Amino acid sequence: MTDTASQSALQAVRGMNDILPDEAPLWLYLEDTARRVFEQYGYRFLRMPIVEPTPLFVRSIGEATDVVEKEMYTFEDKLSGESLTLRPEATAGIVRASIQHNLTYERPQRVWTHGPMFRHERPQKGRYRQFHQLDVEALGFAGPEVDAEQIVLLARLWKALGLESCVTLKINSIGDPTDRHAYREALTTYFSQHFDILDDDSKRRLSTNPLRILDSKNPAMQPLIENAPRMLDQLGAEACTHFDGLRKWLDSAGLAYEIDSRLVRGLDYYNRSVFEWVTDRLGAQGTVAGGGRYDGLYESLGGKPTPACGFAAGIERLVLLLRETGQSAATAPLAYLVHQGDAAAALAWQLAETLRDAGHDVALHAGGGSMKSQMKKADAGGARFALILAEDEARDRTVTVKWLRETGREQQTVPIDGLVAWLTAVAV
Ligand code: ATP
Ligand code: MG
C-alpha cells in the first residue's frame, strides 16, 4: 500500500472513548459499588446483545423521539438484509428478553445490567456516541412502592459513592395514556397559540408529539414551556393515587424531592411516575439518572400486560462527578519483583507464582534492563516495595526488600522460604 492516508494511524470513532488504565479504576469502583447496592435490594444481573432488530427500538422508544428520529446507529445486515440497530438504551432489550424467555411467568423479577449504549449525538462533556449505563428494572410490579424502592436505592448508591450532596431528585407523573390524550390536546392548543415563537423542532413536534416539546433543550423555548399547562392537573384518579403512593413512600424514607411538572422523559414508553436525579456540577449534561414506570411496554412489544418500572444512570457522568469531588481509586500491585541474571530470572518467575498462589498481587519485571531501570519501573508502577533478586540473592535464596513509599524504612533481607509469611504480615 502506497496511499499515505491508509498508513496514517487510525483513531477511535468520534464520540467513542477509550477508558485507559489510569481512568479505569474509578469505573470499576463505581460498577462494584453499584453492583453491591443493587444486590442489596435483590436485583439480579442479566446481559443482553448489543445489537437488536431495529423495530424493537422504534416500537418502544417511539418514532417521534430524538433517539429514533436522529440518534440511532442503524444498518442493514449484509447477509440477511435485516435492519439492525446498536442499542441506544437497555430497557427495550430487557423487555424483549423477558417476553422471549417468559421471565415473569411465575413471579415478578428484579433485574439489572450495565454496558455500552450508542446514540449519534453531538459529542461534548458528558455526552458521547458510545456511552455506558447502569440499568435497573423491576418487571411485573404494579404498586408505587417499587418506583420508590428504585429511587431510594439510588439515594443509597449516591451515599456509598460520597455523591449525596451533589445530586437532587425530581419527580413527576405523566399519567396514563387516556389522561395524556386530554393533556396532549391542551398542549396542542397552548403551543398552537404561540406557533410563531416555536423553534423548528417544536413546530414539527406540535403535530407528531407535542409532549416532546416539554423536553426541549433549547433555552429560548424555556419561558414558553414554563407557562404550559401542567400534566399533574390532568391526572386521572388511578394515576393520582399512584403518585400519592410514591410520595408517601419517599416521605417515609425521609427523602427530599422536587415535583417538577415539566419533567417528561426522552422516550415514549413511560407512564405515571417519572424521575430524574440531577446535578448542577456538569453544565448542561446535568441528568445523572432517569427513569420511571412503563406499564404499557410489554403489550406494545407483543407480550402480556406486565406493569414495570426502571431507570438508567449514565456512568460517564457519574465518573465525571466522582472526579469533580476529588475522588480517585488507584490500583497498584503490592510488590514489584526485579531480577538480574538467568538463574534469578527463573527463580523470580517461580517465586511470583508462589506469592500469587498465596493471594498477593505481584508484578514481575519483564524485558531485561539494568537494576536501576528496573527500580524506576517498580516505582512508577506504584508498588509498595520492590523485591530484588540479583545473583547474590539467587545464590543465598533470599530477596532484598526495598520500600518504595515509606521513606526512612530500612531495606531488609528476607529468606525466600519465609517470604509468603513475611508478605502476609506486612500486607495487612
Ligand atoms: P439527556 O437529557 O441528557 O439527553 P436522556 O434523557 O436522553 O439524557 P436517558 O435516555 O434517560 O437520557 O438515559 C439515562 C442516562 O444516561 C442519562 O441521564 C445520562 O446520564 C445518560 N446518557 C444519556 N445519553 C447520553 C450520552 N449521549 N452520553 C453520555 N451519557 C448519556
Ligand atoms: Mg438525550
Q: Per DSSP, what share of the residues sits in E-state strands of 2 or more residues?
A: 15-25%
Trace the largest sheet across and list its strands. Answer: 1-5-6-11-10-9-7-8
Quote the CATH topology of the largest domain.
Answer: BirA Bifunctional Protein, domain 2
Any ligands, ions or cofactors bound here, and which?
A: adenosine-5'-triphosphate, magnesium ion
User: Given the structure, what is the number of helices?
Assistant: 16
Low-confidence stretches: none
End-to-end C-alpha gap: 57 Å
SS content category? alpha+beta
Shape: elongated
Give the averaged pLDDT, no decimals: 94
Helical proportion, percent range: 25-40%
The count of strands amounts to 16
Largest sheet: 8 strands, mixed
The number of domains:
2
CATH H-level superfamily of the largest domain? Bira Bifunctional Protein, Domain 2
In CATH, the architecture of the largest domain is: 2-Layer Sandwich
Radius of gyration: 28 Å
CATH C-level of the largest domain: Alpha Beta
